[in-house]
């Protein structure tokens, strides 16, 4: 199958220009300035498909309301359509190992159900985007080793991350604010003290050993490793020494700077930029962008935030070139995930493509192709 686009604002790894792109058998075979053959895109942007390294969005469709679970295959199909509608063609569905609560999606039974539902939907040809699993490993958890043994061998496994949500450090370094949230949810002072003591006890017993366990597992399987919510130089150095190549959502500029020095890909949450800051009070993504410390975005909990981030960076106060801005949601995430076949519009790459124009200052996705097939 062969087709072409013309009169498109083609975004390559380092430039953007009015040109044409030829696709054959799911791959890009030619990229040219000018060109008069193919579907006329009327000057719309033609960019690579967006790559999302971390989205919790699958859980939203599995649990559309508290304690109401949905068919996991159906949830995967709905989630897939949501991702494609905002230009995301490669999806790392993030599921947490070690944060278990019977009232939410992250319990012992639902993790395999979600993962296997995703696989079943893919194998049945019901998904159009390329879905992979990102296992978020809560290192203080007592049962992380056993759960990893069960889940890490899943055929969609493509990324591991080291996490530690113990209050008083990393994402929740503002412990007063965190404990106030517990209190606002109805916990008594005694309950808060007991819960906090239990969490800290688990961290002391498990975190260091579990971090090494996850790192060794990732290395043995040749799967990229990310470190989540690093707070300081020591956190970054420990993660890098364990083999982490991605710094996901660093919470201070010092941690982001050290991650760059250690050659890690620095990834921030798209909602952080679009909302004007971190909901936890951590370093704003805009500050890292200004300092030259930002490489990539992941959607975290809003898939559409990625396409909005790319176009927001081209406007004031940032003023990035279109090519540089698009790279933070395409080329850089591909590099972080060690995917060498996508993320750029170049000869030989997968024809994962997105057509975009802007209306009222917001990007509007007008077409999506995955491996040369129209997907949205």
Task: Summarize the helices and strands and which ones pair or pack.
Blueprint: E1 2-11, E2 16-24, E3 27-33, E4 39-40, E5 45-48, E6 50-55, H1 57-62, H2 72-85, E7 88-97, H3 110-123, E8 130-138, H4 144-151, E9 157-163, H5 175-184, H6 189-221, E10 225-228, H7 233-242, E11 246-248, H8 253-261, E12 265-269, H9 270-275, H10 285-290, E13 296-298, H11 305-312, H12 322-327, H13 331-336, E14 353-359, E15 362-370, E16 373-374
Parallel strand pairs: 1-4, 1-5, 6-7, 7-8, 8-9, 9-10, 10-11, 11-12, 12-13
Antiparallel strand pairs: 1-2, 2-3, 5-14, 14-15, 15-16
InterPro entries: Amidohydro_3, Metal-dep_hydrolase_composite, Metal_Hydrolase, Metallo-dep_Hydrolase, PhnM
Protein name: Alpha-D-ribose 1-methylphosphonate 5-triphosphate diphosphatase
Keywords: Hydrolase
């Amino acid at each position: 199958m062969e087709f072409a686009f013309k009169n498109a604002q083609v975004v390559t790894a380092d430039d953007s220009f009015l040109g044409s792109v030829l696709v054959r058998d799911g791959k890009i075979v030619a990229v040219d300035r000018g060109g008069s053959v193919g579907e006329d895109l009327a000057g719309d942007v033609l960019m690579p498909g967006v790559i999302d390294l971390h989205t919790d969005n699958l859980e939203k469709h599995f649990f559309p309301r508290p304690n109401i679970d949905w068919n996991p295959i159906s949830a995967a199909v709905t989630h897939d359509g949501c991702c494609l509608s905002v230009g995301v063609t490669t999806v790392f569905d993030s599921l947490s190992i070690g944060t278990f609560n019977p009232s939410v999606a992250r319990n012992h039974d639902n993790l395999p159900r979600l993962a296997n539902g995703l696989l079943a939907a893919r194998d049945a040809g019901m998904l159009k985007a390329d879905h992979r699993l990102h296992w978020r490993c809560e290192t203080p958890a007592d049962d992380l080793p056993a759960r990893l043994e069960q889940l890490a061998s899943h055929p969609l496994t493509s990324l591991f991350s080291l996490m530690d949500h113990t209050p008083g450090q990393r994402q929740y370094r503002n412990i007063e604010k965190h404990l106030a949230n517990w209190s606002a949810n109805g916990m008594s002072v005694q309950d808060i003290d007991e819960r906090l003591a239990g969490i800290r006890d688990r961290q002391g017993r498990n975190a260091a050993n579990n971090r090494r366990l996850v790192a060794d597992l990732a290395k043995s399987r040749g799967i990229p490793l990310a470190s989540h919510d690093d707070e300081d130089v020591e956190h970054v150095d420990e993660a890098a020494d364990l083999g982490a190549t991605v710094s996901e959502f660093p919470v201070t500029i010092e941690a982001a700077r050290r991650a760059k020095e250690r050659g890690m890909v620095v990834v921030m949450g798209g909602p952080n930029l679009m909302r004007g800051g971190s909901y936890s009070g951590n370093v704003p993504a805009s500050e890292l962008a200004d300092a030259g410390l930002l490489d990539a975005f992941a959607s975290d909990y809003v898939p559409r935030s990625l396409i909005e981030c790319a176009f927001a960076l081209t406007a004031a106060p940032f003023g990035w070139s279109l090519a540089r801005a698009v790279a933070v949601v395409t080329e850089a995430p591909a590099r972080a995930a060690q995917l060498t076949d996508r993320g750029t519009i170049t000869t030989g790459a997968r024809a994962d493509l997105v057509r975009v124009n802007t209306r009222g200052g917001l990007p509007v996705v007008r077409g999506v192709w995955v491996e040369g097939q129209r997907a949205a």
